[in-house]
Structures are given as C-alpha cells and as structure tokens.
Amino acid sequence: MRADLRKTVHHAVLLAACVPFAPAWAQTAVPSPAATPPAAPAGSGLDDLPPPEEAQPAPDIAPVQITVLATGARLAVDRSGQPISVLTAEDLNRIQGTDFTRVLQQVPGVTFANNGGQGAFTGIHLRGADSEQVLFLIDGVRVEDVSAPGAGFDFGTLTPGGIDRLEVLRGANSVVWGSAAIGGVISVTTRQTNGVVASVEGGSRGTFSGNFDAGVKKDRYAYAIDAGYTTTSGISAAASGTEPDGYHQWRIGGRGRVSLTDALSLQATARYTVGKTDIDGYPAPTYTIFADTDEFQRTYQFSGRLGAHYEKGVLTLDGGYALSSTRRLVFDPSTTPDLEYGYRGTSERADLTGSIKLPSDFILNFGGDNEWTRFSSTYDSEAHARLSSGHVLFGWVGPVASLSAAIRVDDHSQFGTHTTFGANGSVKVTSAIRLRASYGEGFKAPTLFQFYSTYGNRALVPETAKSYDAGIEYTSPDGRLRLGATIYRRDSSNLINYVSCYGVTDGICTDRPYGTYANVGSARADGVELEAFYTPTQKWRISALYSYDRAVNRTPGDANEGNALARRPRNVLTTSVDWTSPLAGLVVGADVRLQSSSWDDAANTMRLGAGELTTLRASLPFGNFLDVYARVENLFNDHHPTAAGYGTIGRGAFGGIRVRY
C-alpha cells in the first residue's frame, strides 16, 4: 500500500516538474457571452457594485457569479454563507470528454463509485453523503429516479453535451430545496446558444460523440435546441470478464423564453435521453460468480418544465409545473422472453417562489410546492405519494455582510409533517478576506420502493441530518490569487437501512420472508476542504483542491459501529494547470487527481486501493469559429477500482473538433 502511494506521488511530482498543466477554474473562468448571468435583481447583493465602466476586470479575472442554490432566489456567490462551486461552459470545454464524472472531479468534496466503464451505474458522494442524499437538478427540475430503491440519480447516464453551467452547493439545505438535500445540491443548466455550436470526438475503445446546439437569443425572446449521440465499446463491467460492455445514448433537448411584457415572461425547457448499457451478472450454472453475461439495460429519461417569471419593483415571482420520468428495462437475450424486469418512476411538481426586497437591505423569500410521485415495477403494483411544502426565508444583504434564516414545513401523505430550519451568514472583514458560516438541516423522505415494494415498511420516517460549516476566503487585491478553507460536520440519524429477515419471522420481519427497510442507522461526516486558484499571468491558470472527509458509522449497537462508510476515500487532491503557448494560441495542460484508499464494505474487510488519474490535454483555436482538441486520459494506466469486482478504465486517447457560428 505504501509502495503504491509512493508510486502515485512520484508520478505527480514528475508531472508537476515537467509538464504544463490545465485548470478547472471553478468560479473564476470568464464565461462565454451566452453563459453570462443576467443582471442581478434588487436585493441580490450586487446593487452596490460600481457601473460596468468603472469595474472592468482584467481578462483573466472573473465577473461576479450569480446562484440560486443558497436561498432559492438569485444571489451573488460571494454573498452566500454556504460554499458554492461554479463551472462555466469554458471550463467544460477545457476539461473535454464525454464522461461527466471528470467534470465533477473539479469540485472539492466530491467522490464517486461506478460499476464499470462509461454508462455504468455511477453514484456520487458529496461530503461523504450517499448519492441518494444529494439533490440533482437539470434546468431546475428534480430528476431523481423515484422508482429506484434509494430514488437517486444515475450519473452514468449524464454526458456534458449541451450543458452550459454546473453549480454545486456543499452542505445540507433542505430548508430551501426540500427532500434529498442532505449532502448538498448539484445543478446543471443547459445551453442557450445564440448561433450554432457543433462538435465531434472520437478515440479509444470505439468511442464517438457528436453534439449539436443551435439557437437564437434576443431581448424579447430566445429559443434553442440541442442534440447529441455518444457511443463506446467500453470495458468489461466485471473485473474478471473479457467481453467489453458498451454504452450508447441519444439525447435531445430544448429551451425557450418569451417576454409578454416588461415584467412578465414565459419559459420552457425539455430534455429526453434514450440509453443502452451492457451489464454483467451472475450466469449459470452457479449464479454466484459475477462474470460476463449478455444482459443489457435500456433507460428512458425525460424532464421538463413550463413556467412564468414576474419581476417588477420590489417583487419577483417564479411559478411553474415540472415533470420528470425514468423508465428502466433489463433484458437477457439468453432467455425467453428476453425482458427480465422493469421499473417506471414519475414525479410531477407544481411550485411558486418569490422574493420581496424590504427597506434597509432586508429581503423576504418564500415558496411552496406540491409533488406527486408514483412508481411501478414488474414485481410491484403502482404506488403513489404526495409531498406538500412551504418555506419562508428572512435575510439582510448589506454592503459587506449578509445574514439569513429560514424555516420549512413539509407534509407527506404517508409519514405526516416534518419541519426544517437553516441559517447562514457571510461578512467581509477586510477588502481581501471574507468569513462565512452556516447551519443547515436536511431530510430525505422514504422512497416509494422503501414504503410500498415487496420489502416496504409503511412505518418509516424521514432520514434527517444537521450540518455545520465555517470558512474563510482570501482574494488578492489584483484578483489573481484566491484561497479558501472550510471545515464542516454533518450528523445524520434515522438512516434507512435494509434489514435481512433470514430465519426471523416476528417483529419487523412478520410476513416479510426476505427482508425489509427500517430507520436504524446513524452516521457522522466531518472534514476539511482547501481551495487555491492562481493566475500569475494571462497565460497561466493554476488550481488545487484538497478534501479530507471522515465518514463514520455511528449506529449504536451496530456490528459496524465506528467503521468508515463504504467507498469514501478520506483524502482527495486534484490539481490543474494550463498554459497558453505563443504558438498560435495553443493551450496545453493536465489534471492530476490523487485519492487515498477506502473500504468497499460496511464491515471494513475489503480495501479499495489508493490511486491516481492523470489527464494531458491540448486545444488549438483557428480564429473564433473552430477549435481542435485532444487528450490522453489515465496517462499512467492506473487501475484502482471504486467498487470491488468491477472493471476500471485504462489509458485512452481522444481527439475532436468544435465549431461555432
């Protein structure tokens, strides 16, 4: 183990000494004109900035970023009491590739575990929270698979094509976002193109990707459409297998906006994907060894929203109707019929949020929504649930400080009422130093599967968490150096675990011969996040992100009490640097990610080794309309699994072109 770690560090040191790197300049990249945030509303913390002609930054200094993740209304990122990372379209172009986990690696506190190659199931851990405890939004729509046991989102089905912006809020924030926001919130926004953008890419393992975006953006209206296709022959999902398991996905989406008056506009978004993932299983005759099979899964995903935005004077309102649906079908060509089983989950949501600017820099945000979910499967008849919610946030956004506190009440058709509280603050103590702190509560409603499936338990109550963090940020007077440090802790209780009923016929196992779900778990995650971004000149960009996360089972009396939670490496370091050469604007760079070992199981008996991933990248612009780019992923061909028994992706080379008009 120590030899492996020394080898990893040796690779990183050699690369640092010899190769220009490429950055993920999270909150500091200058976005393209289409991605530039809209003018800030009153009360956003931006109205005290000087006019544009007095505040023009150097080309390498970022404009102020705006987010809605902190309070539900638009707010400057540097006024939020919670840590928020932002990646723009330029960051995504610089990172390159068809695997979205490579993008998420550029955010502190994020780790992942996947079941094989690209397209295989991929779960995200944010500050040690389960993937199902992280809320994921596409264009403001919750897109979790409500038919899955934990009702999480499979990040293996997400590609960067058509995405314009990524925002990640780290820490519990259910007071604004409701169920599932225990570990944090991840939000992506699709592209509103003004013109045409197209790209094609190919490379190792039969990988090909093509993306097309086109749109028109005017003062009174805008519309855009995006489409893409990704395919790869892949690798064997089973580490012991020899047959590659491929992935193929079609994607189409669109968005539009029209201003009916100066104060009122209508907006619509939609996204649809169809994917096919080859999977491995447990073949005959023993059905006990994970190995090559001919099975595959088809996944159909739809999400969309129709809404209205009103803004006049001190009042801002947003309302709409959203729909999200996921259907999963698993096939085995060796059987008749070949359809083994299937699941379908649907979520509908009606919402209204608003913000009022009060005198003396005070603000009042409020909102309410009603969600209807349903699921069915080959083994379970259709089940339904309703969740009605309302929240109110009162805050103050002054010239050098901001404070807010909020309360939320949820009413569920099965478990009843749940109340959530949160508060945070930020203060600029000098022109260069900002302090922030937050307290947030999170909850996750039991899923339809946990309530109503063959294994269901209708006595379940929500999982809950209390989250604390504090941080400090430094920005140099010229804006070229930014440093940040955050400490945090999250205590979770009432965690829902699967309970085996083998040999037990009484108590909770009555009439459940196989097992059921119960609120029996507790856990604690605490850690440190360090961030550094440096632009010594306009030709260099450097970043380093370090996370220490200790996630531990704290269930009293449990056999695994005190053990580390599975598949959570405690130490993760990501460094990125890129350099613009004098050769026709050629940009060369690399990313290096180091992570420590972790455990694959709750008993901490099977260790997953430490590892490193290094990517070399280059891009060459031809005017303002064409880029040619290439990269080598996993340069040192490191094979460290994120889930035991599953295959890992080795070295690969890729190249492509991107056209803008």
From TrEMBL:
Pfam families: Plug, TonB_dep_Rec_b-barrel. It comes from Novosphingobium nitrogenifigens DSM 19370. PANTHER family: COLICIN I RECEPTOR-RELATED (PTHR30069:SF53), TONB-DEPENDENT OUTER MEMBRANE RECEPTOR (PTHR30069). Its main location: membrane. Residues 79-185 form the TonB-dependent receptor plug domain. Residues 30-58 are annotated as: Disordered. This is TonB-dependent receptor. Residues 205-635 form the TonB-dependent receptor-like beta-barrel domain. It comes from the Bacteria. CDD domains: ligand_gated_channel (cd01347). One of its GO terms (biological process) is monoatomic ion transport. It is found in: Cell outer membrane. Belongs to the TonB-dependent receptor family. It is a multi-pass membrane protein. GO terms for cellular component: cell outer membrane. Keywords: Cell outer membrane, Ion transport, Membrane, Receptor, Signal, TonB box, Transmembrane, Transmembrane beta strand, Transport. The keyword Cell division does not apply.
